[in-house]
Amino acid sequence: MHRFLKIFFIISLLGPCLAYTQELKDTPVKSDMVEIEADRLDIDTSQGKAVFQGSVKAAKGDIIVNSQMLTLFYDNKTQKVTSLIAEREVFVLWQDKEATCSQAVYSLDREIMELTGDVIITKGEETLSGQKVIVDMASETQVVEGSGGRVKIRVNTQEESGILQWEK
């Protein structure tokens, strides 16, 4: 009987800890870190840039960018990363949206992402397309331009739409 009570006591102490640990695992972590993988890296310290080539994957928080080339720019004095430019076969995964385009420029200090060149953004069955999409994460606004073509959107009117919502 005492053995049973000891086991019950230990389990009652560990139970809440295990539940809290699972809650921490499920909570997304906000990070200022940028993680990049590629087949090749060329660094030019005089210009403050690093060029990643070949099956590039970059991640910052909940934003993942895949491309064939990514150029990272940094301030030579502070060594702080200022912007990232992804080119050739660009694929962006962010929250519950996916985007494809020719080029993606992410200005970290201004919190602006600019997608250009046959941009197609999808969220489930909803789509948004144009030649240029500017997403301002600080003010949670976006601008879509056709640049000679047309802006097109496909939205589900029976459910809450999320294709137009971009948040930090």
Features:
mainly beta; elongated; lipopolysaccharide transport protein A fold; disordered N terminus
Characterization of this structure:
- This protein is mainly beta.
- The protein has one domain: Sandwich (lipopolysaccharide transport protein A fold).
- Helices cover 15% and strands 52% of the residues.
- The protein is built from 1 helix and 10 strands.
- Strands 1, 2, 3, 4, 5, 6, 7, 8, 9 and 10 form a 10-stranded antiparallel β-sheet that branches.
- A hairpin with a 4-residue loop joins strand 2 and strand 3.
- The longest helix has 25 residues.
- The chain is elongated, with a radius of gyration of 22 Å.
- It starts with a helix and ends in a 14-residue tail after the last strand.
- 14% of the residues are buried.
- The N terminus is likely disordered.
